[in-house]
Amino acid sequence: SSDPRSKEAKRVTFKPSTEKIRWKMVMPWSKGLLFYDIASHFADSVRLASAGRLDIKPFSAGELVPAMQSFDAVAKGSAQVGHDWPGYWKGKNEAFVAFASVPFGLDAEGYNIWLYEKGGAEMMNELYGKFNMVALPGGQCGQEMGLFSNKRATKMEDFKGLRVRTVGWYMDILNELGASVSPLPGGEVYLALERGVLDAAEFSAPAMSYPMGFDEITKYVIEPGVHQPASQCYVFFNTDAYNKLPEDLKWIIDLCAKETQLWSYNWINSLNAEAIRRFKEKVEIVKMDKETIIEFRKTTKAYIDDLKAKYPDVKKVMAELGLPT
Asked: Using CB atoms within 10 A of its CB, is residue 17 exposed (0-12), middle (13-18) or buried (19+)?
């Protein structure tokens, strides 16, 4: 079937807007995290494409609102735009996690196909829409690193009592296995590892983790990163603010979000190889046993089946994703 936009593009009925709009953008990311750069890249793209007519100013975690209050700030309209990894909002609705990263779930290509071609973005907007927001995919970071750890953990029993930083469904799964998990924001992880409050932590792709310096204060990396075969971010807008935008700026936002999705994936992956090379100089990379990975997958499936039974939204989204099997 043809591109559904082609009809609209043949006869454009709107004119370029002239008003200058200034928006504030909030996020869970501290400056220095590459996620902050992805959010800023989107804002830069919009500013360039609109010749400065839509000026989105990014604010890092804590500048306008604390990291984990960025969702509520945009819902209420005290900021017009947010950037996120939606697994952080599992307390609002468990289904947010499915749009972020599913353990043993979709990889980056799978997310792109599902979101853009199989109705995933529409389902995502139903969910954000319940909170007075419009969302667009806006940052794909690929496969995550495993756990940076001061304890060597390759078998299931090694995770018992392990104090770990992770988020999303993997947090609950590790807790069920006897670990003790804290979902700390990225900017707080290094200090917690350094002080021994945590034994182990993960934070996104190798290139994301490298500037955070975890390799300076841990001995091992426990692979593979089964908890996040892909890491999907979004840019989201207060619905009232979005609806007031002139039509040409809505198109610019849409295209800039897609450009950010493409750029972020290629940018992160080009940096990953160098990051892994440098990690190997400082930490020992160990791999979970095959039996342990299989056991993890079974535990994940049981956990998600339980979620599907409890939460209709999770059941609906996971039926579309068809994962994990």
From this structure: middle
Residue-wise pLDDT tens digits, 256-306: 999 999 999 999 999 998 999 999 999 999 999 999 999 889 999 999 999
103 contacts: CB under 8 Å, gap ≥ 6: 168, 169, 170, 173, 226, 227, 228, 296, 300, 324
Tens digit of pLDDT for each residue in 151-195? 998 898 998 999 999 988 999 999 988 999 998 888 899 999 999
- Cβ atoms of 64 and 58 within 8 Å: the answer is no
Under 8 Å between Cβ of 167 and 87? yes
- Six token digits for residue 216: 């300076």
Residue 199's CB is within 10 A of a number of other CB atoms, namely 20
By the 8 A CB rule, do 140 and 231 touch?
Answer: yes
Those residues with Cβ within 8 angstroms of residue 223's Cβ, 6 or more apart along the chain or in another chain: 145, 146, 285, 286, 287, 288
Hunting for tokens 């994936």 — which residue is that?
Answer: 265
pTM exceeds 0.70, yes or no: yes
